[in-house]
Amino acid sequence: METSLPVFLLALLVIRGLSLECEECIGIDDCSGDKLPCGLGKDKCSVTNMALPIGLSVTIKSCVSSDVCDKGVQVINLGQRKYVIAHLRCCEGDGCRDIPPSISELPKKAAENGKQCPACLAIQGTCDEKVIDCREDELYCAGGLIVTSTLEFSLKGCANKAFCDSLVAYEAMAPENNGHHAIQCTSNSSIHQEEFSNFTRIGKSSGVVNTNPRWFGLFITIFSGLIFFQV
């Protein structure tokens, strides 16, 4: 029994020494940031490349859970040839610095697949949705709200399985009082604005409800620009 405390302290030091640290940042084209300890359940470092229809490429580096690694290219189709596409890849150590951008351009027009979804993007108000024809592997309707203390964004469109499977990658990384976002995927062809408001308030959805990441402010800037360039 006399050795139990020293052994416990030694084990604690070993565990802390082995705890994962990942670079965390978001930026236009590429980014660099400090290495920070990963939270509970986040056992991999990741690099996400994102392309927006306003001609911006965004890179995000963060800790994630290994079950969201390498799901493929994520696509959400907002209608009127406006896409947001992303590719999350997991990495280790210095290998994260060697991952090249994986998205060079927005997808070419693909064949319709017979599914239809409401699509729109709006700030501070209800989406003026239009039904669009989904294409290729866009087999889900997706939508949600991004809520901060001053702004609320509505988002709807056709999405592929990789997008829906990767929602959990955007986990809570900041206190809840900074706001939150909620994204939902469904195989149905109808998502209503009231459903978004409801699951955002009660914190339940078939997707994921999260608090804002540390770099959420830049996301707000990007989405503001995206909405501006729709006009």
TrEMBL record:
Any GO CC annotation of this UniProt entry: extracellular region
PANTHER family: LY6/PLAUR DOMAIN-CONTAINING PROTEIN 8, LY6_PLAUR DOMAIN CONTAINING 9
Source superkingdom: Eukaryota
Keywords: Disulfide bond, Phospholipase A2 inhibitor, Secreted, Signal
Principal subcellular localisation of the protein: secreted
Transmembrane segments: none
Phylogenetic lineage: Eukaryota, Metazoa, Chordata, Craniata, Vertebrata
Protein name (record): Phospholipase A2 inhibitor subunit gamma B
Source organism of the structure: Crotalus adamanteus
Record-linked Pfam families: PLA2_inh (PF02988)
